[in-house]
Amino acid sequence: MLLERDTELAHVGAALRAAEEGLSSSILLSGPLGIGRSALLRRLPGLCAGEDVRVLRANAAATEQDFAFGVVRQLFDSLVAGAPEEDRTRWARDACDIAHGTEDSRAALSEAVLYGLRSLPAGLGENGRLLILVDDLQWADVPSLRWLAHLAKRLDGLRAVLVCALRDGEPRARHPLVREVAHTAARVLRPAPLSLDATRALIRERRGGPGHEEYARACHEVSGGNPLFLMSVLLGTAARGFPPTADHIDQVRALRPAELRDRLASHLRTQTPAVRDLAAAIAAFGDHAEPALVAQLAGLDEIGFGAARRALDETGLLTGAREPRFTHRVVQDAIESSMTPAERERSHAGAADLLYRSGCPAEQVAAHLMAVTGPGRSWSVPVLRSAADTALRRGAPETAARYLRRALLAHRAQDTGRARLLVDLATAERAFDAEAC
User: How far is Cα of residue 425 from the mean position of the Cα atoms in its chain?
Assistant: First the structure.
């Protein structure tokens, strides 16, 4: 079910009509993770069903970047699969002669080979229009990228429309050849997040009926209109047996789908070390992600912080607020799942140190000390005691008791200081456990 993509479909349809008159063009379909680029690309062949349009398709993959001309071969394989036997034999022979006729990388990248590869779509275009679709352009192998860049600049006379989908925020999207292909696009289409109306429609389609208005609003709020996030929420609530009613909006907001977490973790692994370090720092600080402190924890200067933050913004993982915050709680889960326990401890220990030196409230510092198993700094015990006092004053004795138990782990000496901590712990426990001694 493709919702609210009529504008993008109309632009590609217009380009195909122009190609019928001999006006070829290149279109870039760009957007963050999960916005629906691939789904939109899959819909495009339907625009020309029953017409004299040959469709060539390829899906680039990060694991196949070492296969020379892998994307080019996919394009022609997709064409050969549905063609008559005579055409299949001729096209396959021509493609293999060119792609396999190179024994070294210098020859593979020669202008003569690129010109020869361009002649294949030129010959195909003599009998009709061409729709050339490439998904995840950022993962294409270098020889295929060079061919696409060569082709994109020489579309005139081919009666072709080239549509490439590119994921924002990927480090390899900045590869010179990827940028070269992208810059040749006559039009850049950026699908927008889904509206509340689209969210309602998707709930009706997926849940078999209209959901409660508050449920629909909660789904739209937590997903930010991102189709991937929204589908994960709808599938997650359905799998847990939660009906689309107002009684379950808290479960919607708290949901952290494992499938989405794993997808995001895989995506984050493709980022640069600076971006991963920044994401880990934001995850450590949580709701207190002051930009200056986050940058220090990530070990980034002002320029490095700005570049890494832009990359996370482009991927659609940040809200855009002044203080860097993730769009969904599952993003934090994805980051933490990709870290070792030791890395998570170091991150929280560093956050506690920065907050303490910045004079932040004791409870903010203590929240990070609770995630550290080691003895901590010399100031750890006083901070934990102060946080416990604050928790008691605001009527949270259970929280105070947790802080004091952590302080006892840090204060191993058998002295009056430990005795005072034990007395404070007993006092806190009596406030919520009448049988505590």
Answer: 44
